Structures
1.
Amino acid sequence: MTRTVFSVLPDTDLHEVAQVLFANAVRAVPVVDGVEGVVAVVDELSYLVDEMVAESRIGPLY
């Protein structure tokens, strides 16, 4: 576990999210806004799936 919590904003580019994940050796980061708090969580698998979809150009899976 880490004592430092890393988070991203809803409009953070996915590549920036990946940099946060890998640079800080964390497996997931919460997506937070100034009103509701945590609105989502992005993990390594979410990033990889999104990249695979982008490369295949088949469109989003969700």
2.
Amino acid sequence: MEPKELVKTLITIIGQIQTDSELECPPLTGATKPVGAVPEFDSKVWPVATTILATQIDVPIPDDVNIFIDETTKEPRSLDEIAVFVCELQEKQGEKQAAA
């Protein structure tokens, strides 16, 4: 899957979560960092959004991986950065499967 498609999917997922939670959702773009920019989008919601994304794109995302926060810098990722990160995860998993 291409990062641009993933960004669109993430925007839809986050928008739906906010709607279902009856919370405001600011306009989302690739530059948006959901952590901090989206009301009440926190560590309780991240796993839900990650699971929905993994299911929709049919790519397993390990439970111990936080796609919304950069492990190294501890800074929130933008939607563009999340999309690239998930694409890299997908590639690594494809390589593992090919090697198996």
